[in-house]
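Hey,

Quick one before I head out. I ran the complex with magnesium ion overnight. Inputs first:
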Amino acid sequence: MAKISINLKDGTAKKEETLIVGIDLGTTNSLVAFMKEGSPTAIKGQDNKHTLVPSIIHFLPNGEKLVGNEAKEKLRTDPANTIYSVKRLMGKSYNDLSTVSEYLGYEIIDDDTESLVKIRVKDKFYTPVELSANILSSLKTRVEKELNQTVSKAVITVPAYFNDAQRQATRDAGKLAGLDVLRIVNEPTAASLAYGIGLSEEESKLIAVYDLGGGTFDISILQIHDGIFEVLSTNGDTFLGGDDVDRLLIDYWLKINARDAQDYIKDKKKGQELRLLAEKAKKALSTDLLFKEQYDGMNCQIAREVFDKLIEPLVARTLDSCKTALKDAGKTVADIQHVVMVGGSTRIPHIKTSVSAFFKQPLFDSLNPDEVVALGAAIQADILAGNQKGMLLLDITPLSLGIETVGGLMDAIIPRNSKVPSRAARQYTTSVDGQVNLKVAVYQGERDQIADNRKLGEFVLKGIPPMPAGLPKIEIIFAIDADGILRVTAKELRSGVEQEIEIRSQYGISEEDMAKMLMDSITNAEADLKIRSLLEARNEANNVVLATQKFLEQNDHILSDEEKNKTLQLSVTLKETINGEDKDLINKAMADLNEYTTPIAHRAMDVHVADAMKGTNLNKGE
Ligand code: ADP
Ligand code: MG
């Protein structure tokens, strides 16, 4: 699939790599597919058996990593060093996660802030981006071995409801894995492409995509028009999937055998073995009418009929979501022209019958439901590579556009390969008390530090009313019109103060320079990420040091001398690490300080609340 291009200036010929692969980076399983002789094909691993790679990473004692099936085995023996469900953490801050962290078997660092989560494995701290990059690297290696060539371009899918930060995190993960991510595509869009829905230009359709995976359920209502897939509504449950089916089966077996669930919770190995048996039974029942095996002296038997009754409440919940999604889209079942089934759990016959009955029509379910998203991504990739005649490529931005933020970091507001025209906005605030001006510097490029990118212009938003740091709400809007002209607007939302610039020379950059900037961003991704995490850790640590200082001043009368000294000492240690170059040390010192001060802070809060209550009592004259 290689093209040869000839450079007319110097007559050299070079082989162009036009292969772009499609990747489904899933919560439970991931896989990679590519266009093989005109049809999308999922790639198997060395065993030539499995196309699915469990989205699991295990850290060996020597620091090396295992990904996929090998890592899955370690869930049983070494759960603290085995990371799964990373996708749930992508682009999330600690505050978003209060419910999830209990459910995960590994340690997420929680310091009650708005900054992005980190995962602790021994004394190292990893971001969800780094961990996802490990999965992507392993997929990259898989496809390179199969094709015996390097692969550096990919389309990666994400759930339709992923926000800007989650999409950006997915892009970053790709870059870190040495992949140029040409497009982030919605999973339901990819699934319908796999069935050829929406491939022809003039097609106009309303479709529903029902996706029941390992741990999540998503329903999306899509409007397809002129080759554009518009998400009208999404609904679902981020804690409903095949794992719940397995749990229902386990509970059933424990009950009919009069066993105590605690035995299988305490004994992790046995618990895991029972879980695997339940999954095996569930899969068998997708084709057989009866499953029967012995385990640990238990009769593990179940008939399809009983199984169907067991999962009925779960099915009903998914259909409730479908109702809501239809309502939100302003549509009814009669409007839906196609229903596409996605996710391994939709292999269950009772689910198929129920969904088909709900939508009153036959289903699109002939492809492997756990591969269909990757297959569609491969088709999208092929279109991008220009291999599908008749498919028009919409105009896209060649490089990311963004602004400079604290520490000289680039914050991309419109990612590269976004459709033109395009509009994106993000909110910022001030970092200094009483700040009245804010400089907005606009950059183009893929690197993490603005120094490595290309500056397009800058302006100053003046006349922000003096307020404490963090209070002003400054919205920065990037809008590119159909002619590629970029307009950047900054507006302080509380006061309405506004400023704007227009940048015309957006594309005033040669193809070679662009290619170089892209290549640089990929080859330097690891170093860039290192610097970014260091700068971010330093910023966060500086804030923590300041907050600690304020806390000590305000609560002087509540804290014991020992508490004051210890807090101060931990804060000094943190300050020292900020000057160093090791982000893990900074994160560790921050975690230590937080761990020590959290209970004290709670106590101080109680005292303040009690004081305030006393106040009200006095006012009431009681
Ligand atoms: P995700 O999108 O969450 O990464 P998948 O689409 O790969 O996940 O779905 C994984 C789920 O599908 C698991 O819970 C698995 O047990 C389930 N599954 C796979 N095959 C079958 C089958 N034949 N019958 C029922 N469930 C299945
Ligand atoms: Mg999936």
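The pocket of magnesium ion (ligand 2) is lined by residues 26, 213, 343, 373 (CB under 6 Å).

Talk tomorrow,
K.
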